[in-house]
Amino acid sequence: MTSTIRLKILGLPNITDLEDFAYLINLSKNSIYQLSKNSEYYYKTYQIAKKNGKLRDISQPNKQLKGIQLWILNNILNKLKVSEYSKGFEKGQSISDNVRPHIFSNCLLNIDIKDFYPSINSIKVYNLFKSIGYNNLISTLLTNICTYKNSLPQGSPCSPKISNLICWKMDSRLQGYVGKKGIIFTRYADDITFSSIMPDKLIGVLPFVEKIIIDEGFTLNKYKTRFTGKLRRREITGLVIYDNNFGIGRKKLRIIRSKVYNFTKTTDNVNHKALHHLYGWMNYIKSVDEVRYKSLLEYIKLLYQKNPKTDIKTLYNYYNS
Length: 321
What we know:
EC number: 2.7.7.49
Largest sheet: 5 strands, antiparallel
Keywords: Antiviral defense, Magnesium, Metal-binding, Nucleotidyltransferase, RNA-directed DNA polymerase, Transferase
Enzyme class: transferase
Pfam family, one: RVT_1
Order of helices and strands: HHHEEHHEHHHHEEHHEEEEEHHHH
Family: Belongs to the bacterial reverse transcriptase family.
Helix content: 40-55%
Number of strands: 10
């Protein structure tokens, strides 16, 4: 099968040279060449704190480079399917899809891939574009635009989709191994979950699972490998399983209720940063835990009835407008 036919079958734009690409994205050939050759100069890098207190490197492309990356994402990458076991960063998916398959299991095995994006180097990205039908020149061009310092940057809109596509083989190998043992498997970016009703069976797969992951060019973060049975708190990507269902859990609910209650302590002095932070949490809870979302709305209403002259009225009016 020729490359042109393969691209046509996949519904991808037929790009054979720099002129084709320049025409499609409405940018000069020289601009594209410079962005590709010197892409590292078009990033802003900074660090944010992880939950464990360590720092995560963020590499954010500038407006022009990000615009090209978004074009590549929408016109090439998003037309390609990832494995059915990949549950993150796909249109129509939410973090709930990563938890739902596991809710009827008695025990969980959670493992984490160390330095996930940095482990996906330019060669892997180049091979991805080459495999879908692009020639050497265009595969190199697309790779340069989508990578930073020889790996996927945390901050590019293309990185999540590229990582999912590159992990197709690993996902298939993991499912092929654990599926025949009756073990359920999902992956949300670098967070991998296995579940079963048989604890011994689940623990026994870890050595070979690690072998597959290493063979695919990744490394386990052994400090984040954890096994939990039914008598312990079973958590997947921040959501807690309980009574054959899942949600944010009682601990997180108490934290959010505390944030809500803080608005009863001030009058006409709304902390807008705290307010928008809470709005973000409420939107997230609405998408993953409707029961607790409704209970928070009732809590806001109750606090407003008791403290109508405090800043809780801002929350109440927002959710009752």
